[in-house]
Design brief:
Elements lengths: L1 H10 L7 H9 L3 E10 L6 H5 L6 E4 L6 H10 L3 E8 L20 H14 L3 E8 L7 H13 L3 E4 L8 H8 L3 E3 L2 E2 L6 H14 L5 E7 L4 H18 E3 L18
Helix pairs in contact: 5-6, 6-7, 8-9
């Protein structure tokens, strides 16, 4: 869409405009920043504050938890984009951290498909998916092929949170024609206020050079700190970029007919 918008802007210039002015207009195309917040669905710390932020965020909701459906409905009503935050097996960490309906590499194809389908159908208004943890599962082609096949069937895009540098998601998403995005930065992979603020500042600097950027934070343990830092930095980000739903960064997404079977 950006190229189309620039094209029509060019057509509207009066005759006699200089090449320098045309170049200046081209450079004024706004950058885009998508802020994704993970781990909604269990009345986690920072939930209300995140949903009340004055910009559109992408709300990643874990399935089958106490407030999963409620959080999806509330987020949608407030104009935020909703995606499924699918729990996937990590290389390290407690299995209890995954929550109900988790996808692990020891499951059969049939069970994986059943769980993914159930997770998607349990989150109202979901238009995409990313994963919770998942450093082991996202390296497994068998597992991820089934997950992405279900995304394709349900017209969902996939955001690779990049919890491993050996992820197979991009390769399979391209093969299966699933719209695909990658995370660029975590605000809070270290929980301290100092680190979250450092990451927020790093993001501001990235917007000097990047046309599009995706950053992920969380509700929960780090939620209050993340939302506090975001309130401080949102005006800073808005000087250089529009803060947009994640799907805005998918070329041609608005043209997809999601009513097709």
């Amino acid at each position: 869409m950006k190229k189309i918008i620039c094209f029509f802007c060019f057509l509207s210039f009066p005759l006699g405009i200089s090449a320098q002015e045309v170049d200046s207009a081209k450079t004024q195309v706004r950058k885009e920043l998508a802020i994704v917040i993970d781990d909604f669905g269990n009345n986690m710390k920072g939930t209300d504050e995140m949903l009340n932020l004055p910009v559109p965020i992408t709300v990643a909701i874990m399935p089958f938890l106490s407030t999963s459906k409620e959080d999806a409905i509330r987020a949608h009503k407030k104009g935020h984009e909703v995606i499924v935050h699918l729990p996937l097996e990590p290389k390290k960490g407690k299995k209890s951290w995954l929550g109900p309906g988790a996808i692990t590499t020891d499951l059969s194809n049939e069970e994986i498909r059943k769980r993914v389908k159930g997770a998607i159908e349990s989150i109202p208004y979901a238009v995409g998916m990313n994963h919770h943890m998942g450093s082991k599962a996202t390296e497994d082609k068998r597992v991820m092929r089934i997950i992405l096949e279900e995304c394709h069937k349900h017209h969902l895009y996939y955001l690779d949170s990049k919890t491993t540098n050996k992820s197979v998601i991009k390769e399979l998403a391209e093969e299966l024609n699933v719209p695909y995005l990658e995370n660029d930065l975590f605000f809070d992979h270290i929980y301290t206020n100092q680190h979250i603020a450092k990451q927020a500042s790093r993001l501001a600097k990235k917007l000097d050079t990047e046309q599009e950027f995706i950053a992920i934070g969380h509700v929960g343990v780090s939620g209050p700190s993340v939302v506090s830092v975001l309130k401080q930095y949102i005006p800073v980000y808005q000087r250089d970029a529009d803060i947009v739903p994640l799907s805005t960064l998918i070329e041609g997404y608005e043209l997809l007919d999601t009513d097709l079977p």
